[in-house]
Every structure is written in C-alpha cells, then in structure tokens.
Design a protein that fits this description.
Layout: H1 3-10, E1 16-18, E2 21-23, E3 30-34, E4 41-46, H2 50-69, H3 72-88, H4 90-101, H5 105-125, E5 132-135, E6 141-149, E7 153-156, H6 164-176, E8 180-183, H7 190-202, E9 209-211, H8 217-226, E10 232-236, H9 239-251, E11 255-259, E12 264-268, H10 274-286, E13 296-302, H11 306-318, H12 338-353, E14 357-360, E15 375-378, H13 385-388, E16 395-401, H14 404-412, E17 419-423, H15 427-436, E18 441-444, E19 463-464, E20 477-485
Parallel strand pairs: 7-8, 7-10, 8-9, 10-11, 12-13, 12-17, 13-16, 15-16, 17-18
Antiparallel strand pairs: 1-2, 3-4, 5-6, 6-20, 11-19, 14-15
Helix pairs in contact: 2-8, 3-5, 3-6, 3-7, 4-5, 4-7, 5-6, 10-11
The structure holds nicotinamide-adenine-dinucleotide.
Residues 156-161, 165, 183, 185-186, 217-218, 221, 236-238, 241, 244, 259-262, 293, 390, 418, 458, 463 line the site of nicotinamide-adenine-dinucleotide.
Length: 486
C-alpha cells in the first residue's frame, strides 16, 4: 500500500455513527475490510450487534419530528453543501472505493460524479414537494391533498456501488424530511462511513442519518424491520435477500422499495450501427468489472451480424488491461471475492459444455487477489446457466436470433426486468421495443442509462419502486387527503 493510501484509510471513521456521535459497537466487536486486489486487510471497523441497530433506530426516531419540521429550503441547502463536499473530496472517495471494492480509479471517479448528483438533484427537489386543492364533483366540499414524510427509514445497500447506492437513498429521504438508519454492505462499508462524516460536516443534524456496520446483517436488520416505529425499508441487493426482506416487512405492512437483481438483454438488430453496438457493449458489460445490476448479461445478436459483432468485441477485449484498480490504464480490476471468480468459472464451463466457444479469456487469473480474465463466449445455447443467472463478472455471452419476434421472446425470457439495451437504426423498431420489452429501463443505442434525473428501477423480480428522477422522492412521502365541507 502507498503512503497516500495508508493516510486516507487512517482518516476513515472506524465506528458506528449514532445520534451524531461516533461510537464503538456495544459488544466492542470489530471486523476487517479487505482489498480484493491483494486480499490485504485495509481497515478494522466496528461490528454492530442487534442492540446497536435498535440504538440507531432510537436516534432516527428521536430526530424525526424536528427534521420533518425543518424548512424544505434548509433541507435542500444542507444537501447542496453535501454535494459540494463530495466534489471537494472526490479523490479521497474514489480511492477509498477502489481500495475496498476494486474497480479502476477512473470508474470510481465516475461513481463519485454519479453518486454526488443525487445530492444535487434532491437538494433541488426538496422545495418542490407539493399537493393539490380542489372542489369535489358534488360541489359540497374541498379536497386537500398534501404530502408528508413517511418517517424513519432503514436502508440496506450492496457492495458494488458503495457511494451511489447510499446517496440514491439518503438524498431523497432527507429531502422529503425522513430520518434514516443505513446498513452498508460488510464488504465495502468504508465509503459510506467517509461520506456520512461529510454529511455531518454539511450540517445534517444529529440523529438524522445513522450508520451501523456489521457482519451480522440478518440479525441486526430483523429487529429494526420488526420495530413498529420504522416506516420504510429500502433495499438494494440480490433478489433472494430482497424476497426475505419483503416477507419480514409484510409483518408490519411496512412500505418497501426494492432494487434487486437483473439479467439485462443486449439486443443487436441487423440494422444496428455496429460501431455504436460495440461501444455500448463494452460499457454495458465491462463497467464495474461486470458487477452491476444493469450489466448486460445476455447478448442477443441477429444471426447476420453475430460473427462480425463477436470479432469486434473480441478485438477490444484482447486489448483490455487487468490489474489493481489504482494502476494507470487498468480497465478490469478484481472481482469482489473468490466466490465471484468461482461463479464466473462455473458459468463459462457450463456454457462451453453445452456447445459455446470461448473467443478470448475464460480463466481465473493465477496469483494474489480475485481476478477473472475479461471473456467473450459465442454460440451460447438456450438452457445454459449463463442465460438464467446474473453473471456478475466480465463475461460477454453471445447467442443469436433470426427475427424480431424471436428477439423479443428471448429478451423477455427471464424472471428479471431491470434494464434492456437495444441497438437498431430503425426508429419505428426502437419504439416497438420500448412497448414490447418487459423492463423498467431501456437504453436505445446506448450502453449506460443511469442518471440522477431519471427513475431507476425494475419490473418483475427486479423489484418495486424507483430511485432518482421526479419519482424518487415519492418513495419517502405519503399522501394525505383532507375533506373540508364547502
Ligand atoms: P446481497 O443481497 O448479498 O447483499 C445486499 C445487502 O444486503 C448487503 O448489505 C448485505 O449485507 C445485506 N444482507 C444480506 N443478507 C441479509 C439479510 N438476511 N438481512 C438483511 N440484510 C442482508 O447483494 P450483494 O451481493 O451485496 O449485491 C449484488 C446484488 O445487488 C446483485 O443481485 C445486483 O443485481 C443487486 N443490485 C441491484 C441494484 C439495483 O438498483 N437494482 C443495484 C446494485 C446491485
């Protein structure tokens, strides 16, 4: 580790943040966070137990009324200051993310820019919470509709986007007037801890944001979710864990937002501009080392252009540099852990056994860290596990289709429905795809769709609710209607 890295890590708070104070876990436990490119321990931090989780909820509950009563303009200005502090500390945040998660530094900088935008966007939305006023059809009364903050909210975030998944939830909640408890992923908690210190510096009052880091996610989360004072649960992570959490939330009829798994189709029609399709494919597949819910999982390419598409992406993949995310020019960092490497290995082996061919890559990288080569496989046949499961690794799997109906059938043949990518130069075909694909989001001739101003979220087993856009703040508001006789 360099001295700059050691110095940065020493500045990351190592405790829980509860009621505006940095505190040790009640039982004094700690756990280690690792650099996936070396396996080295980078920091030892507090390991919360269930009583810490409830203490954090106590603090959020205690701060709720005052925060809801804080002027929307002031809430917005605090978020705006937080946005500016994130810009000031963008290099620290980016390096921290690379150290705990592994992605190349250039991508970490991209995430800081993206994650920061939620603070700016919702700083501007805080003052636009409005209702309506009207006369009922009978003319006997006035209908007043207002929007109130939902109340104390609990957030569980994943490891793949350590900053953006936190800001995408915290910013709209704070803008709406809700207080929060955040439980970041145990593999990447440092970015959240560093960010929350910036929130406090921006003027977020004590108790409005609380953080519990823990290796006992289930044990710490369950009592918080079961607590009748909690009003909202927002989760980003895998579908199986999301299903468990929805079941727990059902007990208290808790409002939930669920950003779950994806299995994005990337459809290339015969009339696509192949330059755009290849450019889009590289982004949609290899960004975040393939570890994104929005990562293209199934490349469904028209049979007349499949060979050319495969040749061009293979050429690009052969030139990719694999290494520690802090090294110049590295495009593929490590996967999050050895289990992720084993999963990519198994999926490729299964596809090959059923007849697919590896054009480049296809192996785990020997030595330190959890690396897997960027890979292209073609001729993937129906029934292969790689078409059903999230790969979550740098493997581009190509299968073919012969007409539009088949493309739609293949694209929709999944229980997920988060994002779809479509490449065609035909405007009418593009519009048909918007209607026909079962998806919460679509990239038409583009490989990345995420934007703070747009509603992010899925259909089917990819989840419920939307984050970002005009829609995002409504996840934290409840509608109240009052009738006043005329
Ligand atoms: P995960 O479901 O294993 O973990 C997500 C979070 O849930 C972590 O904080 C983890 O500690 C916690 N958790 C795990 N078990 C729990 C339990 N029983 N009770 C409470 N909390 C629990 O997912 P992951 O591996 O961290 O993230 C990858 C997954 O997240 C992928 O499926 C990916 O598609 C999905 N994801 C979705 C989006 C989206 O917006 N739709 C964005 C990013 C990631």
């Amino acid at each position: 580790m360099t001295s700059a890295e050691t110095d940065l890590l020493a500045r990351v708070p190592a405790q829980l943040f509860i009621g505006g104070e940095w505190v040790d876990a009640a039982r004094g436990a700690t756990f280690a966070v690792h650099d996936p490119s070396t396996g080295e321990v980078v920091r030892e931090i507090a390991d919360a137990s269930p009583e810490d989780g409830i203490r954090a909820l106590d603090a959020a509950v205690a701060a709720q009324d005052a925060w809801a009563a804080t002027a929307p303009r002031e809430r917005g200005e605090i978020l705006r200051r937080a946005f500016e502090l994130v810009q000031e500390h963008k290099e620290d945040l980016a390096l921290l993310m690379t150290l705990e998660m592994g992605k190349p530094l250039a991508e970490s900088r991209g995430e800081v820019a993206y994650g920061g935008e939620f603070l700016r966007w919702f700083s501007e939305e805080a003052v636009r919470i409005s209702g309506r006023y009207g006369t009922n059809p009978e003319g006997t009364g006035r209908i007043v509709v207002s929007q109130r903050p939902v109340g104390p909210s609990f957030f569980i975030t994943p490891w793949n986007f350590p900053l953006a998944m936190a800001t995408r939830k915290i910013a709209p909640a704070l803008a709406a007037g809700c207080t929060v408890v955040v439980k970041p992923a145990e593999l990447t908690p440092l970015t959240t801890l560093f960010f929350v210190r910036l929130l406090a510096e921006a003027g977020v009052p004590a108790g409005v944001v609380n953080v519990v880091t823990t290796t006992s996610s289930g044990e710490v989360s369950a009592p918080i979710i079961a607590d009748p004072r909690l009003r909202k649960l927002s989760f980003t992570g895998s579908t199986p864990v999301g299903q468990k959490l929805i079941a727990q939330a059902a007990e208290g009829v808790l409002r939930v937002s669920m950003e779950l798994g994806g299995n994005a189709p990337f459809v290339v029609f015969e009339d696509a501009d192949l330059d755009k399709a290849v450019e889009g494919a590289m982004l949609a597949k290899f960004r975040n080392i393939g570890q994104a819910c929005t990562a293209a999982n199934r490349f469904i390419v028209h049979e007349s252009v499949a060979a050319e598409f495969a040749r061009r992406v293979t050429e690009r993949v052969e030139a990719m540099r694999v290494g520690r995310g802090t090294e110049d020019g590295v495009q593929i960092g490590p996967l999050i852990d050895d289990r992720a490497v084993a999963k990519a290995t198994e999926l490729v082996a299964d596809a090959v056994e059923r007849g697919a061919r590896v054009l480049v890559g296809g192996n785990a990288v020997e030595g330190r860290g959890s690396f897997y080569e960027p890979t292209v496989v073609e001729g993937v046949v129906p029934g292969s596990a790689i078409l059903r499961e999230e790969i979550f690794g740098p493997v581009l799997a190509i299968s073919t289709f012969s007409d539009e109906d088949e493309a739609v059938r293949l694209a929709n043949d999944t229980e997920y429905g988060l994002v779809s990518y479509v490449f065609t130069e035909s405007l009418s075909r593009g519009h048909r795809m918007i209607d026909r694909l079962e998806t919460g989001m679509m990239g038409l001739n583009v490989g990345v769709v995420s934007n703070a101003a747009a509603p992010f979220g899925g259909v089917k087993q990819s989840g419920v609710g939307r984050e970002g856009g005009l829609e995002g703040i409504h996840e934290y508001l409840s509608v109240k209607y009052t009738l006043i006789p005329a």
